[in-house]
Amino acid sequence: MTRTGFVPWPEHLAREYVAKGYWRQRPLGALMWDWAEAYGDRVALVDGPHRLTYRELAETADALAEGLARTGVRHGDNILVQLPNCWEFIALILACARLGVAPVLALPPHREHELTHLARLAGVTAVVAPDRWRDFDHQTLAEHVARDRGAGCRVLVLGDTVRPGNTGVRALMDRAGDPAARRRRLDASAPAADEVLLFLLSGGTTGLPKIIARTHNDYEYNARRSGEVCGYDEDTVYLAVLPVAHNFALGSPGVLAALMCGGRAVLLPSPQPAAAFAAIERERVTVTSLVPAVARRWLAAAPTSPYDTSGLRLCQVGGSVLSATEAADLMAGLPGRLQQVFGMAEGLLNYTRPDDPDDIVRTTQGRPICADDEVLVVDEDDVPVPAGRSGRLLTRGPYTPRGYFAAPEHNARAFTPDGWYRTGDVVRRDVAGNLVVEGRTKDLINRGGEKISADEVEDLLRALPHVADVAVVPAPHRELGESVCACVVPTAGLALDLTEIRRFFHERGVASFKTPEVLMLLDALPRTPVGKTDKKALRKLAGEAHVPRQPRSPAASALQRL
Ligand code: AMP
Ligand code: DBH
Q1: I need a labelling partner for 356 at 20 to 30 A (CA). Which of 101, 293, 317, 488 fits?
Q2: Residue 247 CA: which ligand 1 atom is closest?
Q3: Quick one: which ligand is closest to 245's CA?
Q4: pLDDT at res. 550
Q5: Which residues are paired to 265 by β-bridges?
Q6: CA of 320 to the centre of ligand 2 (A)
Q7: Which residues have C-beta within 8 Å of that of residue 226, sequence separation ≥ 6?
Q8: What would you measure as the largest C-alpha separation in the chain, in angstroms?
Q9: DSSP string covering 512-538, please?
């Protein structure tokens, strides 16, 4: 079952990846039963009071798979999934894997603007959402998104309040009946391992979010090899505090690798330090993953925490830039040993290794996990730079797909003709192959690890009558690293402030993390000699404007912060 829009690896490489044992040619749903056979009564997932053994998880996923099939979702379909961290989310991913249905993993803060786009892009036949989450009515949102897809797009709701016409996810998980017979039926119609397992989102691109199709083969390797590199074993207890819809917490090594080796995954709905520290003590957590913004919060909270977090062996930090000074602070003050991670939903994963010397862990973002990860550091003409010099990172490999899903025009820019992914990151590589992330060429804002395309926010702002011209750049932010700064030339006679922008974004149904937090009103946008918007100058201005003194440039005629 091939999906139109999926860009496969060249056939000779696919054969090589199988021959080398990277791709195991076994769909994740079959592997799930391998785990259940090997670790049956061990606890696989912990979510508050819920503790599921491997066997219960496999049986529940099978029941849910057949339940989904009864609603009309079929092999080859894509569905939109917007769920917070909870055990049902993992069961759903496994159920989809069993059926050959690929979930698009949306984030809980996404709203109609994002979800409608994703639903159309993937042509989904169902939308899965909680009834409510953090005071927001996701069921109604899901109904809107499904309606936009037309009749036949179902709404599946996780929670107690399921409105007529929608289907309750919990009811679909009913395990009545013979699990062995169900298992045989599902085995008989299992997808092939080179089919799409799931879709991850990328924020780091132009325009609206792109999606990345990850296959059973490549994503299983992504998680398994990450687990090996990070020393995962049966005693591993992984704590997910970042959204499991993210590649980092799901499969790098995250929840999936914990399940692969007979370990355990503990799911929390937020990275709030007190709850996380309590969970680390209670569940004897050995490894967790954080973005730097969360790591900073944990660092501040650690000295007064009453909890015993000494069981934490590894504290992974990645997703946005971490200076060597900050890394040193984290090494000194966080529970567990620091591990730097430089990863991407597009594939390539770099980790410092648990047994690396301190100075490597402090000053680099690690090295690739696979001998067949190809890494090139090039100049603006794609010519490799001398070793040790910084340049643009290109990569190919057994878990780096050859294109975004259904985005041929974008792929022509984001990939070279011979399949290298242009990461948009500027890196330096040391003699041992460790990468240091020094910057980026892509036009995005990395807000606490959440990537926001400048393009997308600019397009939204342009729809405001108050905006004559606009450019969006990152502004430095003490906790988050960066926040969204809108540089606006206002239309004569129309006043614009952040409240107005917030109202407009809210009305448009845009995820709130994309709403500008800094506004610079300018008389004109600075231009480069060839007439393009000079974003470098604007970034500098946004940086200076943040220092609590008068902006140096007279162009910054107004500045507001949330
Ligand atoms: P995405 O493509 O949305 O999955 O985001 C991946 C991007 O996040 C990378 O290409 C980098 O720009 C950024 N990133 C991830 N980890 C790190 C890190 N450790 N340091 C700096 N940037 C990072
Ligand atoms: O930022 C990311 O996308 C990221 C960071 C660390 C990632 O995808 C990952 C690890 O797998």
Answers
A1: 293
A2: 4
A3: 2
A4: 33
A5: 45, 238
A6: 9
A7: 251, 252, 253, 254, 257, 349, 351, 369
A8: 75
A9: GGGS-SEEEE-SS--B-TTSSB-HHHH
Whether omega before 103 lies within 30 degrees of 0, making that bond cis, reads no
Q: What is the pLDDT of residue 529?
A: 95
- Both structure tokens of 330: 């984290």
User: The sheet that has 102-106: what strands, in order across it?
Assistant: 167-168, 154-158, 126-130, 78-82, 102-106, 196-202, 210-215
Other Cβ atoms less than 10 A from the Cβ of 269: the count is 17
486-503 burial, b at 16+ Cβ within 10 Å, e below that, comes to bbbbbeeeeebebeebbe
The sign one gets for the Cα dihedral 471, 477, 482, 484 is negative
Residue with tokens 């060839």: 530
Give the predicted TM-score (pTM) of the model: 0.96
| 560: confidence class by pLDDT, cuts 50, 70, 90 | very low
With a CB cutoff of 8 Å and minimum separation 6, the contacts of 469 are 488, 489, 524, 525
> What is the Cα–Cα distance from 182 to 246, expressed in whole angstroms?
30
pLDDT above 50 for 322: yes
> From the CA of 435, how far away is ligand 2's center (Å)?
15
pLDDT digits over 163-183, tens only?
999 999 999 999 999 999 999
Ligand 1, CB cutoff 6 Å, lining residues: 202-204, 318-321, 340-346, 365, 423, 425, 437, 440, 451
H or E stretch covering 422: strand 421-429
Separation CA 520–CA 540 (nearest Å): 12
Cα–Cα distance between 543 and 483 in angstroms, integer? Answer: 11
Q: Which amino acid is at 243?
A: P
Q: How confident is the model at residue 556 (pLDDT cuts 50, 70, 90)?
A: very low
DSSP 3-state of 559: strand
Measuring CA to CA, which residue among 142, 279, 261, 117 is closest to residue 203?
Answer: 117
Three-state secondary structure call for residue 94? helix
The CA 221 to ligand 1 mean position distance, Å, reads 20
Contacts of 543 (CB under 8 A, 6+ apart): 475, 476
**Tens-place pLDDT, residues 52-110:** 999 999 999 999 999 999 999 999 999 999 999 999 999 999 999 999 999 999 999 99
Contact 516, 452 (CB under 8 A): no
